[in-house]
Amino acid sequence: RQRWRADGRALRKLPVHVGLVVTEEEPSYADMASLVVWCMAVGISYVSVYDHNGIFKRNNSRLMDEILKQQQELIGLDCSKYTVEFANQDKTGQVLNCQSTLKVLSPEDGKADIVKAAQNFCQLVAQQQRTHTDLDVNVLDNLLSSTNGFPDPDLVLKFGPVDSTLGFLPWHIRLTEIISLPSHLNISYEEFLSALHHYAACEQRWGK
């Protein structure tokens, strides 16, 4: 555990929010749980898990069980100290020590959430609570429910051969660094850490 925390501190730049995007057809709960726990161990505050078929979200209890199991096995954390949120659901599992928050997302939390936010804004205009000139980036951000309380991702780790994020938070990744890895299956900690080093070395020009 101390080694992982030291690895995080040694990085010149550590992402605050990491998106783990699986484009493969057969997602692995054990491998995804390892990635989530490694994110927690190095000190990443927010983690989003996404697959384009919504398998992880539909089976979030199975993923959560695997994460809690690996928390104990890999870093010896007390399960009572970790916060988990499932986007667009009222159920929040309070499990907190690691100061990390997880959201499990599916395609409905991407474009569909933007459509819903636009509809909500139009209703506010119709009710004269807003005017059309009020619409800006911050207002739309506040209307999006799937990432409520989450900063935009600094880094997306995309797993699989598909050269696309397949609908992962299209509004939020305008300035996100995206690193592609061949597969999340049997991924090693060294591969994960190498991706973080790659991110830390990137010079972000913010469109300049």
Chain-averaged pLDDT: 81
Count of extended strands: 7
What is the CATH third-level topology name of the largest domain?
A: Undecaprenyl pyrophosphate synthetase
Let me know the CATH homologous superfamily of the largest domain: Decaprenyl diphosphate synthase-like
The H/E string reads HEHEHHEEEHHEEH
> Which shape, going by the Cα principal axes?
globular
State the major sheet.
7 strands, mixed
Radius of gyration: 18 Å
CATH architecture of the largest domain: 3-Layer(aba) Sandwich
CATH class of the largest domain: Alpha Beta
Q: What is the number of helices?
A: 7
Strand-residue fraction?
15-25%
Enumerate the spans where pLDDT stays under 50 for 5 or more consecutive residues.
Answer: 85-97
Percent helix: 25-40%
